[in-house]
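Exercise 3.2. Students should predict the tertiary structure of the chain below and write it as C-alpha cells, then compare their answer with the key that follows.

Predict this chain's 3D structure.
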Amino acid sequence: MNTQDNGTPVRDGLPPDARRLAMLSVAIGVGMASLDTAIANTALPAIADQLHTTPAASVWIINVYQLAMVATLLPFAALGEVIGYRRVCIFGLCVFTAASLACALAWSLPSLVVARLFQGVGGAAMMGVNTALLRAIFPAKLQGRGFGLNSLVVAVSFAVGPTAASLILAVATWPWLFAINVPLGAAAILLARRALPHTERAGHKIDGPTAILNVIAFGLLILTFGDAAHQEGWHKLLPELIATLVFFGLLLRRQAGHAAPMLPVDLFKRPLFALSSLTAVCTFAAQGLAFVSLPFYFETTLGRSPIETGFLMTPWAVLVGVMAPIAGRLSDRYSPGALGGIGLALLSSGLVAMLMLPAQPSVFDIGWRMAWCGVGFGFFQAPNLKAIMGSAPASRAGGASGIVATSRLIGQATGAALVAYCFTISATRGTTYALALAAVFAGVASVASFSRVVVGRQA
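Answer key:
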C-alpha cells in the first residue's frame, strides 16, 4: 500500500492530478539519464578538441558514465525496497543535476570524467527505481498506459540524442549539452518532492559487502565490453573476463539464501520474468547494433553530414513515440507476449529491409524502413515492461525495476561491442554484418516473446 506525502493511503495508484505531476517528474529524470547516454557520443570529437586530449582518452567520457550506471543500478534498486523508491529517486535527481553542472564547468578531461562518474551514479539511482515508482503511481488498470509513456520517454531520448547534440553544437559549445540538464533537474526535484508517492518498505536490510561485489562485478563486465569494442588484445581481455566471472561467482555465493537478493536470481526462476528479461536484452542489443552502425553508413558510405544523419535516424524515434502509448494501452487488454512478439517480428523485418537498401538510396528509401523499425520497437517496449513488473511480486518491485534498466544497458553495451567486432572483420561491410546481427537478435527476441504466451497459459 502506498501513501502520499500527507500520509493518506493510496491503495491503487495516485489521484489523476498527483499522477500527472509524479509522471512528469519521473519522465524528466529518466529522459535526462537516457539522453545523456547517447548525447555525449556525438559531441566527443568537439569535447576532445577543446580539452586538448586524444580521441582514445576521451572515450572515458562515455565509458565511465555507462560503467557507473550499470555497476550501481541493482544496489539502488535494492535500496529503494528498503528506504522507499521516492527517496532514492530524489537522491538520484539531486546527484545527476549537480553532476551535470560540474560537467558543464569542467576544465580538463579528468574533471569531466569525475563529473560524468557522479552523473552516472545519479542516473542509476533514477533508472533503478523508476519502473517500481510507475507501479505505485498508476492504478492497476492503467499500468500499461504508464509503462507506455515511460517507454516513449526512454526510446525517444535515446533515439534523438545524436540529433539533439548536433543541433546544440550548431549554435553553442559542448558544455551546454550538460548545462541544459540543470534547470530541468531542478524542476524535476521540486515536482518529485511534491508528487512522488511513499511506498511500503521491505523488512530486510541492505548487505554492504553484496553491494560492493555487485559494483565490482558489473563494473568489470562493462569494462570488458568497452575494451572488446575498442579491439584490445586477449592479453588484456582474458584477465578482465576471468575477474568478471570470479566476482559474479562471489556475488552469487554471498547472496545465496537471501530472501531478496540484490542480483534477483530468485525472480529468474519465474519463467515469465526470465523470458521477458531475455527479450529485453536481445531487443536492446538489436537497437544498439543498428544505432551505432547506421551513422557510419550514412556518413561514410552515403556522405551525409552529422546533422543529416540525425534527421535520417528520426523516423525510428517518431514512430516509437507514436506506437509506445498505443502498445501500452493494448497491453492492459491483450497478452504482452503476443504484442511484443508481433512488434519484434516487425523490427526484424525492418532491419532486413535496411539490408536491402539500393546502392544510392533516397531519403524516402531510408525513411520508410527506419519508420518500420520504429513501429516494431515501439510496439515491444511497454508490453514487455508490464510483463516484467507483473511477473514479480509487489515486494520485489525494486529488484524487477533494476533488472529492467540493467537489461537495457547490457543489451546496448553488447550491441556496441558487436559493432566494433563487425568493423574489425570488414571495414567496408561492417554495417551490413551489424544490421544482419541486429535482425537475428530481434528475431530471437520475437520467439522469446511469443513463447511467453504458451508459458502464461501453462501457469
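Discussion points: The mean pLDDT is 84. The beta strands are 2-3, 9-10.
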